Fold G1204 protein.
Amino acid sequence: MVVRAESSGDDKQNTQLAPRKPRTSLGEMVNYYLRMEPHLFKEAVNTQFERIREEREATAEAAKEREKNAPPASTDKSELVLYRRMEEVKRNEQRATVEDLMYASVLEKFVEVGVDMMPTLDSITESQETLKSLTEGIHTKEALDLVREHVRGIMGPAAVAFSNAMIKMSKLQAAQVYAASIMFGYFVRRVDKRFQLERSLGLLPQNQEEAVARLERLFSQAEALDGADDPDSPSSSTPSSPDASPQSESSSQSEEGPSFSQAQATGDFQALGAEQAKSKKKRIPLREYVESFDQATMLEMTQVVSAEGAALVEAQTGALFGDLKALQRQMQEAVGTDATSMEELMERVQSAVNSGAVESLAITVGTQRRAVLEAIAFGTFLRDVETFVETEYALLTPPKPSGDFGAGGGGGGGQKVPRVGV
């Protein structure tokens, strides 16, 4: 049974949770649950994911049976083409449903942190509570440092300007900033999860001074253990004062030098690394961790890992700003292709905005800051949802290689994260 929400046009506008509307009836159903029956939302989404997985497994089994039972010589090619076409149509329908379910799951995470997504880029009034929810309520402390740098890199001095100051930019520029911020949030979540895991396991890279100090502590610990086992050593033969208490002994030990933990005494390097990562006051920052990546690792971490995720990045941006390809053609016609320098190109863009030759936005600094933080949060939540869907149901489609987002590509995957603030 498919549930549809019936309402008037005004009511739909008031209850729309985000600019992108569902493409499928099942997407409409889970959006209805999220708005009206939130306690039923998770169960409804998980049920649909499970149904799609079962359908795909049944389709794969049927295809194997056809190949097994039909001799190659007597196989009707036209019949095979028909079956494949039917499976392709079904697969596309399932993928559209998966995208709708993933998008609704992203919206649920906004609901959980108490933030309503902006349905349009109209000027809004910022609140400290919303800004806190979009930052501290989503990101770890390490990731939050990179988020701040990204906002400053995107907005420049306007990042700390008076929130009601007006700015004007082309819709294409605003869309590119928004898409870059989604991809940045996606990237930060990927590297932060990896960073937190390696830190918990004590696998973070150490600089040369830390490695030397660690070896010196291990050698000292080994000498201390050898001395304790040797009855002729001065430390073992020196009698202790009968008046000495356990507290005084421990106090004397702490004055002479640092005590050794069980991990140090047993030579358990993994546990030792975890202890040091936990007790170290100055931990390796996330930026330094990212800069330690080699080229292959960086390339891997800066790509969307599913075609569904890439499609949602483009769909969310397009729903908020309009047809991105049309905006790009409009800008190219206005500024031309013969600019000889970046300065000349930016002058032409500004002239096109001022003259009205391209579609533009006039918004407050606060609205742009809110849009950037919301986009980062969207990318972060998208990565979390993507991980859940692939881990629990294995429904995601590998992306097709394509150009960077906003370069005229379609809904393919493989987009690289703009290196802004990283």
